[in-house]
Design brief:
The complex is a heterodimer of chains A (116) and B (111).
Chain A lengths: L3 E4 L2 E4 L5 E7 L5 E8 L3 E10 L2 E4 L6 E5 L5 E5 L8 E8 L11 E2 L3 E5 L1
Parallel strand pairs in A: 2-11
Antiparallel strand pairs in A: 1-3, 3-8, 4-5, 4-9, 5-6, 7-8, 9-10, 9-11
Chain B lengths: L3 E3 L4 E4 L4 E7 L7 E6 L5 E7 L3 E4 L2 E6 L4 E6 L8 E10 L3 E5 L3 E6 L1
Parallel strand pairs in B: 2-11
Antiparallel strand pairs in B: 1-3, 3-8, 4-5, 4-9, 6-7, 7-8, 9-10, 9-11
Classes of the chains: A mainly beta (116), B mainly beta (111).
Chain lengths: 116, 111
């Protein structure tokens, strides 16, 4: 089973460049998430999607946009990358709604992004 | 006060040892609790859920103390393969319930 897949695995950008991180899940989950993980900061939620066509801001949404293309796919876009966006980005999905008692999240392998 | 706090470690223990991690949370209304495991340069994976007074799964035991607002993870007979970072995850009320991740406790099991 593929679970949650992410592309690319690694990316180096120059300041001001744009890019889209792709995420797909094959578990028929409704909820999907984008997190960033920085040393000493833990996982922080960027955006959340409860279902196709709906998205909500998380803790650190500035500088990012998202698109829930269909039930399977949830993309994260950096319109004008900044060095502060250097991080590891994880996509996750869950069968339950956000914050539900059974909100067990399954993570993709991550994208390591460096912005120079 | 931070919402979910963990001792960052590292905890360096010999094979076969018993090790325990604690995690405290700030919101007394929290209803669900999890331990995730994250290997170096890998994604977090669910280790255990903790819904009531505790869970046991083989060598791993998770305990919940609602009165003191902490959960713990006990690993018995540590293996080299247990070396990882353990993330405490709590359902915190912030207008709605949201999963909040601790920064993790790093464990190194030494031969």
């Amino acid at each position: 089973n593929a679970g949650v897949t992410q592309t690319p695995k690694f990316q180096v950008l120059k300041t001001g460049q744009s890019m889209t991180l792709q995420c797909a899940q094959d578990m028929n989950h409704n909820s999907m998430y984008w997190y960033r993980q920085d040393p000493g900061m833990g996982l922080r939620l960027i955006y959340y999607s409860a279902s196709e066509g709906t998205t909500d801001k998380g803790e650190v949404p500035n500088g990012y946009n998202v698109s829930r293309l269909n039930k399977r796919e949830f993309s994260l876009r950096l319109e004008s990358a900044a060095p502060s966006q250097t991080s590891v980005y994880f996509c996750a999905s869950s069968e339950a709604a956000r914050g539900a008692l059974t909100d067990t999240q399954y993570f993709g392998p991550g994208t390591r992004l460096t912005v120079l | 006060r931070k919402e979910v706090e963990q001792d960052p470690g590292p905890f360096n223990v010999p094979e076969g040892a018993t090790v325990a991690f604690n995690c405290t949370y700030s919101n007394s209304a929290s209803q669900s609790f999890f331990w995730y495991r994250q290997d170096c340069r890998k994604e977090p994976k669910l280790l255990m859920s903790v819904y009531s007074s505790g869970n046991e799964d083989g060598r791993f035991t998770a305990q919940l103390n609602r009165a003191s607002q902490y959960i713990s993870l006990l690993i018995r007979d540590s293996k080299l393969s247990d070396s990882a970072t353990y993330l405490c995850v709590v359902n915190i009320w912030a207008g709605s319930y949201q999963l909040t991740f601790g920064k993790g406790t790093k464990l190194s099991v030494i031969p």
